[in-house]
Write a structure and sequence with these properties.
The protein contains seven helices and four strands, in the order H-H-E-E-E-H-H-H-E-H-H. 54% of the residues lie in helices and 11% in strands.
Length: 153
């Protein structure tokens, strides 16, 4: 039984661009570990789902459908409106690469997790974030301890 256009339209309207189940799951786990963050930060390029502003760590929770997980194989799965969906997902993937590049060039660390990673291995995702935050803290301490060598007049 195929869905009507109205049913498809309704389903697509229900898709959230923030506070998705995978985002909430990861944010709750981070909060329980005592980590404080900003969510959906509009002032940071790409509006990361989770941002640690002081450490310049941006976290994105990517759903498999919208961000093209296993894209080379999955794009063959589209049976209806291929002329719409394939370019749409490819634009999303291109934008993800552009966001990564811009943030990295601006001194940010970008972490991206697939929805299935968050659902199936939440602790590993949290551990990766904690490790990155600790690494950034170590970098800050090392930078602060560098001698300030300048020209002596």
């Amino acid at each position: 039984m195929s869905k009507t256009q109205e049913q498809i339209h309704y389903n697509m309207q229900q898709v959230k661009n923030k506070d998705s189940k995978i985002e909430l799951l990861l944010r709750k786990a981070l909060w329980q570990k005592g980590l404080r963050y900003r969510k959906n930060v509009k002032s940071v390029f790409g509006h990361p789902d989770i941002a640690f502003i002081g450490k310049k760590v941006a976290v994105f929770c990517d759903s498999e459908f919208w961000h093209g997980y296993d894209w080379e194989h999955r794009k063959e799965d589209f049976k209806v409106r291929q002329d719409f969906w394939i370019p749409k997902i490819e634009r999303n993937r291109k934008r993800d690469r552009e966001v990564n590049e811009k943030l990295i060039n601006d001194g940010w660390v970008v972490l991206r997790f697939w929805g299935k990673e968050i659902k199936n291995n939440l602790e590993n995702c949290v551990s990766q974030i904690i490790k990155m935050l600790n690494d950034r803290k170590t970098e800050e301490i090392a930078d602060a301890c560098k001698p300030n060598i300048g020209t002596i007049l």
